[in-house]
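ERR on first pass: missing label on line 2. Operator R.T. fixed the label and resubmitted. Corrected input:
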Amino acid sequence: MAVPDRDLAEFRSTVGDWCRANVPKDWRRAQAGAPEEQFVAFQKAWFQELRQVGWAVPHWPAEWGGGMSVAEQIVLYQELAANDAPRLVLAFVAIHHAASTLLVAGTDEQRRCHLPAILDGELWVQGFSEPDAGSDLASLRTTGRREGDVFVVNGQKLWSSGAAHADWCLLLVRTDPGAPKREGISYFLMDMRTPGIDVRPIRNANGESHFCEMFLDDVVIPVSGLVGPEHGGWRVAQETLSAERGMTMLELSERLGRAGFTWLLEACRVRGPSGDRLLDDPVVADRLAAFEIEVAGLRSLCRRVVERHEAGASAPAEASIAKLLYSELLQRVMDFATEVVGLEAHTQLTKPLSSGWESGAWMLDYIGSYEWTIPGGTSEIQRTIIGERGLGLPREPAAR
Amino acid sequence: MAVPDRDLAEFRSTVGDWCRANVPKDWRRAQAGAPEEQFVAFQKAWFQELRQVGWAVPHWPAEWGGGMSVAEQIVLYQELAANDAPRLVLAFVAIHHAASTLLVAGTDEQRRCHLPAILDGELWVQGFSEPDAGSDLASLRTTGRREGDVFVVNGQKLWSSGAAHADWCLLLVRTDPGAPKREGISYFLMDMRTPGIDVRPIRNANGESHFCEMFLDDVVIPVSGLVGPEHGGWRVAQETLSAERGMTMLELSERLGRAGFTWLLEACRVRGPSGDRLLDDPVVADRLAAFEIEVAGLRSLCRRVVERHEAGASAPAEASIAKLLYSELLQRVMDFATEVVGLEAHTQLTKPLSSGWESGAWMLDYIGSYEWTIPGGTSEIQRTIIGERGLGLPREPAAR
Amino acid sequence: MDSDFGAVHDELRGVARMMLANHSPLTTAGRSFKPLDWQLLASSGWLGLEVPAAQGGAGAGFAELAVLLTEFGRVAAAAPYLGSVVLGTAALSLLEANTGRDHRLQELAAGTRRVAVALPTDRPEVGQPTAPFRIRRAGSVLEVSGRAGFVPDVVGADEILLLAADDHRPVLVAVAPSAPGLQIDAQPVVDETRHLAAVIADGVEIDPDSLWSFTGSPEAGAARLAERAMLAVACDSLGLATMMMEATVAYVTDRYQFGRPIGSYQAVKHACADMLVGISICSELVGTAVEALSSDEPGSWVPVSMAKAHVSSVAVEIAGKAIQLHGGVGYTWERGLHAYLKRAALNRSLFGSPIAHRRRLAARYAGEGNS
Amino acid sequence: MDSDFGAVHDELRGVARMMLANHSPLTTAGRSFKPLDWQLLASSGWLGLEVPAAQGGAGAGFAELAVLLTEFGRVAAAAPYLGSVVLGTAALSLLEANTGRDHRLQELAAGTRRVAVALPTDRPEVGQPTAPFRIRRAGSVLEVSGRAGFVPDVVGADEILLLAADDHRPVLVAVAPSAPGLQIDAQPVVDETRHLAAVIADGVEIDPDSLWSFTGSPEAGAARLAERAMLAVACDSLGLATMMMEATVAYVTDRYQFGRPIGSYQAVKHACADMLVGISICSELVGTAVEALSSDEPGSWVPVSMAKAHVSSVAVEIAGKAIQLHGGVGYTWERGLHAYLKRAALNRSLFGSPIAHRRRLAARYAGEGNS
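pass 2 clean. output:
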């Protein structure tokens, strides 16, 4: 997969030129606090723009419309970040989790049905978490009763980000209540137009409503919606969930470096009423340098993680290391930015949804950072994974 | 126990005047790196000086030579710290642990035998910890076999600070191997001249040897050496061990504030070759201020802890809070001092043993700080105690 | 872990906690941040706590006020208490006596008048607040001009007291919100429990009877006002941090994952322990500062700056950790924890950042002598 | 978690780890800090790693040296490697070619000569090290004077190279330890694995043949030397931190308390996880800096300062945490962990404190443009 350095440099300038020509200049201002429909329309349009140049799903196999080398993907995401292109946040589950599920464990028919549809704009939602199954995902209680060629599903899902706009859902359901908790779960593709699905938005700490609750009342899913074996869904979820995390962490760490840290520097260069700049405070400058170092280390680490993953030489738990580092560093940077920018940091009341986890609205960004330290395995869970899988430390005794 | 403010002010000036007249001016220099015998002689002499003015055992009951109010003790320890008087480190176990054990659980005869002797210079050592019983003290394995009027003791004790100089030992021994682990332990007073006791010094990380291993080979202790009921020693240890911790934490926090922080300030005021002072670096100044605040809070907390203890209104786990705060703050201050003072901090190769945990030999003091975050319940254990006893959080499930 | 100012304080605290119990964003499911009922506060005697009995107040001191402020912090109370009571009543009390003043104090205690005080909010200089307004005398006409940002509780106030320099001497000037030349720009912030505004005066003509001098040293009076503001915020942060700890302890005791209450896991338990340890120090720092300010100790700014710097920082950490330990639930609007984090972060920046306060403290080290 | 520079590096690392396995203070029970056998290092080709093949060396680069330096850090090796190899050989390599130089390189590679290099050790200025010595020309007589503290590996060196200013141009001057006017004061430090000394020259007369110019820009040559010193220390800290993590993981897996291995407790497990996370970042920073320095990138001081600032700090934290998690055993002399903490703390201060390096980095932000 080695791509000559010269070709990479050329690709970099191609992406850069394209971005400068095509990234809407004022998208952040226009999208900050924009109504939901406008956000959805913007995301769909941007997805098609990227698709046209072949950069919407670079990580997919060539036969489905991707086929970009990892080295090129790294360049692509670095340049998208450097040019502050909008992120594909709305299609995220579709192009990552849904696609990797289909590619790894789906049937040919499922793939043919959905992968092209995703390219045309089909949106997906995750239906995994439940009120009593957060970190302990395997304790989920949504039930699926088999009746001939269909399953009848009842239960409640939580934190289903984007459910309001989704066409399809990746759903984990307990289909064998008698089995040990990880062995009675099936993995389904659920059409969101099926009767019995009630989606209610949940306002998050910033007042946004991209999270949803999903109530499932006798929802009928045909057996053809199964992914992997009946009752064998837990393994499918494990294999497919984290498939694309490496490249996502790389993209986000690039954005933290290029957008987040750079804007913080800019904010610290603004001259106050008395002509002084935050940067002139050596205490602030010292902290900025410390953050720059950590961000540089994180970006380097993320590149290494995707390269090693590509080479089949991943170190154990390194995806957890990257996630923990990114999320906690993001949080500390945003907390610090809120502190030093001071009262002005509290006056920005909206931020665009199409960004990375940094928008320059520091207080909102600080709060938003908890969306990275909590979901997808809390920082506490990540540390346990790193200790046990990364270092081989003994597990805790099981609860009685 | 309310002492009028005026009397306290007068007492404060009495102690201050006495210290200025009696604290040897150059004791730190003279004692730094001094041979063991010189340290012991110095400690014994200083103990007698304090005893003469009634300040060696102020916390003991009046009938045994103490009887000072808590308010006065606070003043006493504040002034001893402010005037950099040597600490009674050699007699520490004798005047605190041994005395409180005797006062709380000893017989009249034991008290009459030992309390006056301690005033005359009798030294004690703790024989609690063992190689496999550190944080989990109750799992100790030293055995005591009853044979008529005596117990025959075999085993190994560790971290017995000052055993080389001790006359007597507070000893925990498993006397009923069949009982649950906390119910088969007895508490003894052991004469260190008894045959079968082999004391070997252990060098610590700083190269000092005040810790010892103690090997017990068929050591015979008469039944009269029992404190509390046979097999009932665990409760005795629990009741008496932490008795004086509050006042000790107060004394040490005063020394951290008066000696430790003040010396750090002085070190930061020294002009370097180019005429600059560490203090002129705003990054250093900022950290110094942060430490000053924490030390102020700690000192205030320690005063409150002893006052509440005196009033019988102790909050749960507050002794653990004080110990955790002191030990970790000490460690952070010394680490920071080592960092900012730089290479010079590494050139001080000795420090006096009669000090608090700060001597101005920053690197040695930083290492020495682990003597507070590890023994007496590691910081990890303290946090568990604070969570469970201070906040009522549920315990971990027991190991299988 | 509240500080213990004795039985009177315990009673005041108990009453306040009961009355405010249902006003926390934790119990109102984040639906609204409705201000507390002002008349109820008046009838509880809380508006006139420091007003002399002669003017219908309780004649108490800052120590009692601090108890209430901490309780308000516990429920992240949305009430113009900071502007009108902590600063307004105190500003008037610090003035030389005059009938206008006494009359106003009476109305403040009764709840029939509300005021705001425009101090420098963002970067306090070492020792002495700089007046953000200045007086100009043109013949017999008096005018005030200047600007103060982020002034608490201006909108809805019947009168605004401006800290102004009258030939370098700090004085207070009372202006009506409707005065020609006075502009009030609401500055909405992420924290919906606080209401701030910029006050801009451009040659506002003032009645000479509305220009008041501080009793004693004008500089000391202005400094005292600023210290009250700083310490009030520290009390608030202490209260909200305590509430966050209690809510977290309750949650992690009830919430099970992997067959155990999550509070039995060391990662969670030790994080809660660190909250208690942090609050223990905060409580001491606030107690020391309150005592110093109440008893008018010289140099009271030292413990006040210590408390403001440390407590306002620790409260953000604790509120953030509370959200983290509540997991996804803690990140919802409904659960209300966000209101505490936002308020804690705003508190950190109000009336001087922690870095600014530490700089102020560190300036004392510069001399070669003892600190 | 070592950086991967390919198969050659893996082999070098493997050989080194095997050869050094029994030299760690962890395995020698802290009995001594005996220097590694210098002739053994020579016969392994480690002394001439960067010496050209023509002079009997391996003709390798700093990337290979970095592998060894990290392994030396793992065992807290007591050897004059920093002074004689990292700085000495490199200093000579950076000089304009001359027979004296080539001859010396040959002897250095063979282990028959040892040198030390006196650079400013404590507070490096932004960008450019200031020469601690200066040349004075009195007629045809050349003299050097000045002082450098904490110079590594001076005692026992056959020759000392002084970084000196010759009319503001940095040059290197070779002096014999016995030269009249040269004073060497050993500066023993708590860390017994390092040997430092102050070098004081008071009008030491020098042979004109011993005054050497750097190839190319003299400033660049001097800067390159300083960067090598900084990065060598960062490599050392990375190695020792990694060893501390591994020793801790092994200990907490074996040590039982309350019926469980202590590594099964979250407080311990998460602390170990944080070590791995910290080392992962350190490893990246070192890798990036080594690449920049090896390939002579302009601006290589940026990744070098980043690595020095961060890695040398994190290593102290990790070594300290290792002692803490080992409990009482970790605090004994015998266990040897203390040697790592002492060396880590010394590394933090050698060749620029973390604060100084961050100040240097932050100076880049001052412009209004992009960083």
